[in-house]
Write a structure and sequence with these properties.
Layout lengths: L1 E5 L3 H13 L3 E5 L2 H10 L4 E5 L7 H10 L6 E5 L4 H9 L4 E4 L4 H13 L9 E4 L2 E4 L4 E4 L2 E3 L3 H12 L5 E2 H7 L11 H14 L7 E4 L3 E4 L2
Parallel strand pairs: 1-2, 1-3, 3-4, 4-5
Antiparallel strand pairs: 6-7, 7-8, 8-9, 10-12, 11-12
Length: 223
């Protein structure tokens, strides 16, 4: 499953991401309500995990706004406020489940997996969008500004991973493991070649570039 974690405590978010990834899920992390809302609106997730109290925009308000706009991705609220009244408030705001802090990693994973099973596959989003870039996961077609982009299977997988991690720095190690299924460095320029080809296809004929190189670190895809 694809899980979005919105938690302002960096160490806590790392703990959550590690627990979910060890259970076989993919995660993306945001540290404030505005960033979390933007990701929830622009990318395809199976479950959203929101801390109730977040910088810039309260977690409950984010979920209320998502629900008002018809985004029904299952939401697990996390909060140190665990009494009955606070749990009810979270559920009324649009949450599907509510987990009080502190909690065990096993319970977190179990709750997320239960929520993920509630998603109706027929209603699951199959379109990834970032700015004017669109990727249809069913037809495997890519468009930017409504212009069709011809893309090879490995490039498609690379772009999908970048879009699912939009705005975040993606390292070469991450790409080797998630796109090429390598758990070692093959000491080749395979990533550079594919990034160059992909950049030519999605950026060359358009007004502003989306695929950026972060020197000495990796790459970042931004609208």
């Amino acid at each position: 499953m694809q899980v979005l974690i919105v938690e302002d405590a960096v160490d806590t978010s790392k703990f959550m991401a590690r627990a979910l990834e060890e259970a076989g899920h993919q995660t993306q992390v945001a540290h404030n309500g505005v960033e979390g809302e933007n990701l929830a609106r622009s990318l395809n997730f199976d479950v959203l995990v929101f801390d109730r109290m977040l910088p810039l925009k309260d977690g409950m308000k984010v979920v209320e706004d998502l629900r008002a706009d018809g985004i029904n991705t299952p939401v697990l609220f996390l909060s140190a406020l665990g009494d009955v009244e606070h749990r009810i408030e979270g559920l009324k705001a649009g949450g599907d489940d509510y987990l009080s802090k502190p909690y065990s990693s096993a319970e977190l994973v179990a709750r997320v997996e239960v929520l993920g099973k509630r998603v109706d596959p027929d209603n699951r989003t199959t379109l990834l969008k970032l700015g004017d870039l669109e990727m249809d996961l069913i037809t495997r077609k890519v468009r930017r500004a409504s212009k069709k982009i011809d893309i090879q299977p490995r490039e498609f997988r690379l772009l999908e991973y970048l879009m699912r991690n939009a705005g975040q720095i993606v390292t070469r190690t991450m790409l080797l493991e998630k796109v090429w299924d390598y758990h070692f460095d093959p000491q080749t320029n395979v990533i550079d070649v594919h990034i160059s080809r992909l950049r030519t296809k999605i950026d060359k004929e358009f007004d502003h570039p989306m695929l950026h190189t972060v020197r000495g670190t990796g790459y970042r895809l931004e609208a």
